Amino acid sequence: MPFARLASATTPTCHIGLGLAAVGRPGYINLGREQDLGDDRSVETLRTRTHELLDAAHAQGVRYFDAARSYGRSEEFLADWLKNRPDAGDVVVGSKWGYTYTADWSTDAERHEVKDHSLAAYERQRAESEALLGERLDLYQIHSVTPDSPALTDEALHARLAEAAAQGLTVGFSTSGPAQADAVRAALAVTVDGEPLFRTVQSTYNVLETSVAPALAEAHDAGLTVIVKEGMANGRLAGPGAPEALKSVAAETGLGHDAVALAFVLRRPWAGVVLSGAATTAQLASNLHAAAVDLTDEQVSRLAGLAEEPRAYWERRGRLPWH
């Protein structure tokens, strides 16, 4: 398991990873991207920004980097960085397949990505990922599994994934939507020749969306590494629009809303890696302060009171525009 490398790391930030969704393509649903990225979102500008973020993250102890086929050129940017950083042999690299990027580097495309969990899509995207990342690809995840995903029942796909696992690639999945817990539990039941197929799970969990927590605890107890995404709720927990309870706790700690929001997630005993989705090095530095936040039980309780009904949370997320 590549994540064993993280277990031996001693930096305070070793359990924080960097996700590249916000910088691998010009358009995304995170709030505040106009201010974060500005108007120049050319390939080379975002390549440079991504490399600056990776440099800063590695220098501050981050050792997990997360990309996806649908994150524009995120794999390409990450691969370029790895080639130029021979000292980064200690990082764990994860990517995802199952969505195809279709926006052609536009922020106003009719569709930015198309979902396909078929065996054919896996074969095609696995070849694309390996062409860029080669042996540096440690973890390959099915992107955004839901309870009705054919990836949960396709035995031919399971066999191919098991072959990849036997050759040393860690196989995982990510989840999305109001039924994340059902998707996690269904995936935990997938076996090949009597052995569990998946070794990692990546799910959305934050102070506003906590419904998947019991299922993630079950996954952790079953031996999976749990990766948490969208800890900032796509920007809803940052800046002046953050909930008042979060602002209050942040004021008490003397740190930013973002650090407190991520610290709430880091506190979960099942959370192996918590992703930062920073788009600037300043955001990243602030996010990494989460490792230093020591929340009291009373503060955690106040933050837990912010949780929304899952369907309402995901409906609001679905209305966020691509900036």
Task: Give keywords.
single chain; about 325 residues; two-stranded antiparallel sheet
Number of DSSP strand runs? 12
Helix/strand order: HEHHEHEEEHEHEHEEEHEHHEHHH
Termini separation comes to 36 Å
- Backbone CA Rg: 18 Å
What's the structural blueprint in terms of helices and strands?
Blueprint: H1 4-7, E1 16-19, H2 33-37, H3 43-59, E2 64-66, H4 74-84, E3 92-97, E4 99-101, E5 113-115, H5 119-133, E6 139-145, H6 155-166, E7 170-175, H7 180-188, E8 191-192, E9 195-196, E10 200-204, H8 213-221, E11 225-229, H9 244-253, H10 257-266, E12 273-276, H11 281-288, H12 297-304, H13 310-319
Parallel strand pairs: 1-2, 1-12, 2-3, 3-6, 6-7, 7-10, 10-11, 11-12
Antiparallel strand pairs: 4-5, 8-9
Can you tell me about this structure?
The mean pLDDT is 94. 40% of the residues lie in helices and 15% in strands. With 323 residues, it is an alpha/beta fold. Strands 1-2-3-6-7-10-11-12 form an 8-stranded parallel β-barrel, surrounded by 6 helices. It has a two-stranded antiparallel sheet with strand order 4-5. The chain has 13 helices and 12 strands. The two termini are 36 Å apart. The longest helix has 17 residues. Helix 6 links the parallel strand 6 and strand 7.
